[in-house]
Amino acid sequence: MAAAALDAWQEAAPRRRRAAARGPKRRAAAAAARGPEAEPEADFVLRRLREAEQDLLSSDLWSSAREAICHCVTKQLRQLEAPVGTLPEAFGSLYLDSPPAEPEGVTGCHPGGGLARGTHRMQCVCYGLGNFATCVTARSQLAFLLLFLEECQIPRSHCWVYDPLFSQLETSVLSTLHLAVLRENEEGKRGVSGECTVFYMPHCGTALYNNLLWSNWTPDALSSMLIIGNSFAGLQDRLPTRVLQESYPYIAKVLEALHELPLPQTPRYSDTFNDTSIHWFPKKRLERLPRDLWAFREEPDYQGCEDLEIIRKGTTDPPAVDLNG
């Protein structure tokens, strides 16, 4: 792995004037304003999606993102592969200059060859893509997801996607791409069940991340997942401490135990991946948190929470095709 490619990928530092990520309420309003007549045909959407993939492949953003993603996933899988008691005390540091040799059987990143995954099967869950048929930003985010799946050798059938805003056309396109479209709104409450799982959640509402952490509130589960989505450091900067602790307690409690790498900012994709980071949870850091912290497992309800920025379960969702069922 070239150290130069990771130079821009330092752990997240406080960023005080970060623009807030656009939430689903604003995306829903934009979708309603466009109306069904603005929706193109499936072949046109697929063609534009292929163009978006090619644009990303030739961009500075992807060349940097590829190295960082491979680095993070390799560290995550090494953590899952290593026998108990053999992880180095410094696990979770970035080793930007000279990564340690990987133990036998542990996966690694091979230049030009993607990620060798070893014995662990990986899966992916994507929430909040938005209307990629008509929105350039959402289409670029979907193109990034497809490139990520290829890079990490995750079969598309092992990637579940959901957004309550998906149209019938978009559901059909996703099925054509062999992605599994979830039938119902999980509100982010999905457990990883011991599988190494990457959650791709670009510009999702804060409650969705909080729900995801609640659903996996054990060191074993959290250490099995990565989150590509809104910067947790950015959330800490933007939200008053009281709001973060009362409305989004699981995010607040895990901040000191995670590692975060922000995606680089490039002019072309400034609206697409702004405020986006890769997050993962070294198990040794999680185990150093107070034991009573893990005993608190109350399900979030967000009563009195202003500007919730997620679409709650129970609204009328467009029908979707479940390729896993």
From TrEMBL:
Q: Which InterPro entries match?
A: SRR1-like, SRR1L
- Where are the annotated segments for Disordered? 1-40
User: Which Pfam families does this one have?
Assistant: SRR1
Q: Where is the composition biased (Basic residues)?
A: 15-28
Membrane-spanning segments: none
Query: Any idea where the SRR1-like domain is?
Result: 120-280
Record's GO cellular component terms: cytoplasm; nucleus
Q: Which domain of life is it from?
A: Eukaryota
Residue ranges, compositional bias (Low complexity):
1-12
Report the sequence similarity comment from the record: Belongs to the SRR1 family.
Q: What is this protein called?
A: SRR1-like protein
This chain's source organism reads: Castor canadensis (American beaver)
Lineage start: Eukaryota, Metazoa, Chordata, Craniata, Vertebrata
What's the encoding gene here? SRRD
